[in-house]
């Protein structure tokens, strides 16, 4: 029998590293054979087809409007599109090399001269109708192709950027755009050890602290200041220095200048859920003035009220002392590492098996000068798999590690600088937003760090609102914060910002009523109705369906809601469209009436059929004019009308890695999702079903519309109370969290790098423009990149994501994150800077695609080969003396462990009886979750909790939170006289040993002896004992850190849940999977071949 967990030797293509291509041609020492050449060539042809179609079928989606038109940038559609067709090139592109000719498949997505921030052209439904038929191969979904590529490229081809939308059959998941980002460890980077550990919304790095923006410029001191000729002064409207602090609509404080050139305010964008006071404990007062505000002595003013300081500014360009970013900012290549000698260690994993740190793993810190690094983006928001970027694709190919970014762009932040300015300063060539990593040639000119164009500093930008000093462009908040939000002026809108629109679509078939979910959901809605993000424009509506579709008129003035039934599901129409989506404020009482009566209305129903497809069509029609969020609750397989599905799961094949249905059985849901995307509608799917519901097909409705999927298997209001609790908690978060509407996101990177594959829930509108009808703070994204042009002349590269969205208050805003990383020339440096969590997260995304496009076993092989290939590369190229054993660089010491954990993760495991929908859901999560949660579900954290103490505890809001060490996931670490808590992300399991101390049993569990622990226990009693307080504080703290609600199970030896607990013991052997040590031996054998 073949070894579980081990790829068949000589298997075909395996590696996941598409972009790294090179080596694995036949004859290479690696196990991945010559791979998919056939596929590659077919891809190329597809791409060609695609390219030719693009211009024709897509023009309406290409941003029609240019912000600040400048020659060379205006027709930016070209560089945004996936296909680097020559007819799409803009003049500005030329210098960067013709992407097209040389690599037919290469994504044009050059970071450099790229397009300006996309205007969501399709926002105006009238103006840019999204023809539903246009989503054809090629035309519409460029990105999918990319996805395929990932896996393919084991060859030397340059990253084929994948432009080629192979959209082969829309039915495959591969286009899935799912993602992850974030990271589990960032936390400590920004928090002193011993102090606070990761919070749900940890404070941003120091650069985000109130005082940061006032800090010294990245380099050099302030420019010499000279008095200016008075006459130059007069025309300038220098803002009055008087501040007024006001609380604005969003509930945060802003400090405005009276004057008006611009307004800068520090917004405290509070997470909507969780206790807002959390931030206080970590030192942020709310609202707080940055020290700069507090300490600045009131400027003496002239009679005119103009601050004296503003009189002193340099006239014209002059020598500017900012040290150029670059060599001076890089520590000598190895010297930075000398601070962490551990980092240089080479480890023999066969000898040092316990490499798991006892505290959360921290992301590596890029080897940058501290002046730059302190301005860098928080890795929670923006992270790269390689913190040292290889200078050529050849070098990247050698390393055999995937290059990509993981993003959590809309994460709730405790501190977020928000700038309102009449001018948003951007590169005139590539439209990059000015950021901390640009260089100022002098006071009047700055050089773009992405395309290197020299730009003028606009007049308004010369004034620093924080210091109230003129002539300090380099101290502006935009240049001092890697994460910042702009209030967008009107050029960023094609239509007035849309109102928040919420439509709820409820399954009310017999099966649905039987689960009792409607009660919970309606009650949650009633409880949170006033907390829905929005304003006086907020609209709400409801649709229910079984074999027919029911609408509810909530017109103001009615004495009660009116139900309208449409039984023609073949050709759905909307009765009285104007009264079905109503203003929440004006019709609140009717809405409340409806929510109170809805659960009772169908209690006697005998209707078992489900016309989900037609109901979704109706909901889409209703929302088309405005866009908004559609929340769909479904409890079974749809059986009637369009989108009806058939059962496909064969239980006896569940454990096999082959022949399982991971691809959609119809493209109906995907097509409808793309229609939704075109009208700025996102669909969130809540699946509450005990039976197979074909999530592989249904999930497409959310995947392509930028929605989310929630899954509550076996939901039942009586039989499964913990699911009820979970749904309630998660709904509360869902209903009240921040939301952005009609959003688009673009990621740019320094010239020479190229982004080619996107993971996450969205639709790729053009090359690199992600269409996000809704954006939520709990979604993560990932992208893969390649080095398209040598970076030998570059010491630093930057990545910038810009998310343009409409807030629930109707403001158009742009959230920008910029990450800066060093470029290196040796393989050793590449390995030293590897971020193993980000690599594992990206590989997981790639493996989901691979599972769908090829097979689960292929994906598993590819994961294993990713480890073998990179460690082989390290051994043969970077390791000087060939020792025996399994030698790994310190940075990758956990790589085999994390990959083994992925193989045992629900998405990729074999040999278990995992239900198909559960596996699909796990895959959805891989794609859509920020990295930090993905890592937790993959490699759970295990703690001993029967002896919690205050040693090393952190304090939050007067609560003391114990911080027990993290243990290896092996039964060796368990003992029968203890109690152990496993945090697996969405579930917490507390295993209590048979001989657990009496103290823990009575003081924490509240039972006299072991035998009295209830068979089913999902809550800890709150006892008046320090042990109870500590345990509950710890568990609550873990829960507070995530947007979903992990259920707690207390597990005794004989409990049925024990198998789940043991299943997560990644290092142990199971019936179907290798132990960690066996896995290491296998890797070693392959590496040393
Ligand atoms: Zn530029």
Automatic annotation (TrEMBL):
Q: Where is the Sec23/Sec24 beta-sandwich domain?
A: 740-824
One GO MF annotation is:
SNARE binding
Keyword Protein transport in annotation = yes
What is its membrane topology? Peripheral membrane protein
Give the Zinc finger Sec23/Sec24-type domain ranges.
424-460
Q: What protein name is recorded for this chain? A: SEC24 homolog A, COPII coat complex component
Is Cytoplasm one of the keywords? yes
Which SUPFAM superfamilies does the entry link to? Answer: beta-sandwich domain of Sec23/24, C-terminal, gelsolin-like domain of Sec23/24, Helical domain of Sec23/24, vWA-like
Domain (Gelsolin-like) spans: 961-1035
Q: Where is the composition biased (Polar residues)?
A: 68-90, 108-126
Gene Ontology CC: COPII vesicle coat; cytosol; endoplasmic reticulum exit site; endoplasmic reticulum membrane
Where do the Sec23/Sec24 helical domain residues begin and end? 835-935
Q: Boundaries of each Sec23/Sec24 trunk domain copy?
A: 497-735
UniProt-annotated location(s) = Cytoplasm, Cytosol; Cytoplasmic vesicle, COPII-coated vesicle membrane; Endoplasmic reticulum membrane
Instruction: Output compositional bias ranges, type Pro residues.
Output: 213-225
Q: Which GO terms describe its biological process?
A: COPII-coated vesicle cargo loading; intracellular protein transport
Q: Which keywords accompany this UniProt record?
A: Cytoplasm, Cytoplasmic vesicle, Endoplasmic reticulum, ER-Golgi transport, Membrane, Metal-binding, Protein transport, Transport, Zinc
> Which InterPro entries does the UniProt entry name for this protein?
ADF-H/Gelsolin-like_dom_sf, Beta-sandwich_Sec23_24, Gelsolin-like_dom, Gelsolin-like_dom_sf, Sec23/24_helical_dom, Sec23/24_helical_dom_sf, Sec23/24_trunk_dom, SEC23_SEC24_subfamily
Q: Where is this region: Disordered?
A: 1-36, 61-141, 197-229
What protein family is recorded? Belongs to the SEC23/SEC24 family. SEC24 subfamily.
